[in-house]
Amino acid sequence: MNKETQLLIDKGEMLPLMEEFYTIQGEGYYKGTAAYFIRIGGCDVGCHWCDVKESWNANLHPPTETSKIVENAKKYSDTIVVTGGEPLTWDMTALTSQLKNEGLQVHIETSGAYKLTGTWDWICLSPKKMKRPTQEVYDSADELKVIIYNKDDFRFAEEQAAKVNANCILYMQPEWSKRDTVVPEIVDYVMKNPKWKVSLQTHKYLNIP
């Protein structure tokens, strides 16, 4: 990679674009609604159950001009979801400012492990044990989505819920490969602790991206 490209990436004027697609949001508060997803490559959080491990290595995904990403996105939807990988690995200021200039609603799905950059209409925080969120993301999160893989994740969920702001909506979501085991446990937990809601990966049930 040449120095000029690296400089543009450092500024967020180019981003390692893995994929972009128009689909139905499958998870959390906005599940069931149409949205255009922008998946940015690069993540060192390293969840062993991640279902998009091919996003981890940013070098596998072509540096793409932010303006081109925005130009394409605005053709499809009023709601844009920036996901990864871990999008906050990169400076999101340029991307979100251009999307907002087009009058679009801009959401992010993040582990919160890095500095919060960009302007967001909705922040979905999905914290991971390996690399905890920054306080700024805890304070700004609109929804907390904790992935339940084993019993210790219920403890982790409560630990994380204690750190987010009072208006943050709390979700527990089964890890897909463990859903048959953990869904009954999540249902039982949420019924006993109704501050929580259940989130499912409905896009996988619908067999869409």
From TrEMBL:
Signal peptide: none annotated. One of its GO terms (biological process) is tRNA queuosine(34) biosynthetic process. [4Fe-4S] cluster binds at C43, C47, C50. Pathway: Purine metabolism; 7-cyano-7-deazaguanine biosynthesis. Its cofactor is Mg(2+); S-adenosyl-L-methionine; [4Fe-4S] cluster. It comes from Flavivirga aquatica. S-adenosyl-L-methionine binds at W49, C50, D51, G85, S126, P127, K128. Catalyzes the complex heterocyclic radical-mediated conversion of 6-carboxy-5,6,7,8-tetrahydropterin (CPH4) to 7-carboxy-7-deazaguanine (CDG), a step common to the biosynthetic pathways of all 7-deazapurine-containing compounds. Homodimer. This is 7-carboxy-7-deazaguanine synthase. The keyword Transmembrane does not apply. Substrate binds at I24, Q25, G26, R39, T83, P209. One of its GO terms (molecular function) is S-adenosyl-L-methionine binding. Binds 1 S-adenosyl-L-methionine per subunit. Binds 1 [4Fe-4S] cluster. The cluster is coordinated with 3 cysteines and an exchangeable S-adenosyl-L-methionine. It is an enzyme of class 4 (lyase). Residues 30-209 form the Radical SAM core domain. PROSITE patterns: RADICAL_SAM (PS51918). PANTHER family: 7-CARBOXY-7-DEAZAGUANINE SYNTHASE (PTHR42836). Its EC number is 4.3.99.3.
